[in-house]
Amino acid sequence: MGTGTLVVLDTNVLVSAFGWEGPERDVYRLCRRGELETVTSRPLLEELERVLGYPKFGLDHGEVEAVLADVKSVAGLVEPERAVRAVSEDPADDRVLECAVTSGADYIVSGDQHLLTLDAYEGVSVVRASELLARLGASDTQ
What we know:
single chain, alpha/beta, Rossmann fold, six-stranded mixed beta sheet, 7 helices, 15% strand
């Protein structure tokens, strides 16, 4: 298994990991167990907090704070070193790229089509959670 593999988990992956069973939760479990390393940034944490606050998720402030605390306990925090402008259709996606480039991540894990169409950015592969699991040969993530 890929110990030492560094990933940036997009907000949509984290929301899915906390909301439903599936490959996104499996990837997050690997991060929690230390079988994958993950990093985030303040802009990504702010986006996660905002998205989790959407009424459709039905989370109260305490539940949102609990998710953020969990993510902060698992992910290293990086301060992006430079601005990236690569996703003109959704400039907020550039924050994910900034985090990945600054940290030297191996993968961005995302379900976002704007990012997935890049395939890679400055040497960082952009993959769905299921593809990452397949690449790592992860079978037992429970």
